[in-house]
Amino acid sequence: MFDGVARWWDGAELWLAQQWFPVQFVLVIAVLLPLCAGLAWVIHRGVDGVADLLVRSRRGDRTAAGGEGGDPGARS
């Protein structure tokens, strides 16, 4: 199975390398732009999720230790 994928990839790479440069550019951008945008969205959502978990755990530690548990940026 891996040999088939390797042959297909070699063929696609050879076909792309033989194209005129503007065609290469458009094809690469048409594939990479959505791929990179999707990956950036996934990373953004992951970092937001981890940050939310950390904030919740810090608030939980503060309330368990007898702290106010309110807004950490608020001053009395």
UniProtKB/TrEMBL annotation:
Keywords: Membrane, Transmembrane, Transmembrane helix. The chain crosses the membrane at residues 20-43. It comes from the Bacteria. This is DUF4282 domain-containing protein. It comes from Saccharomonospora piscinae.
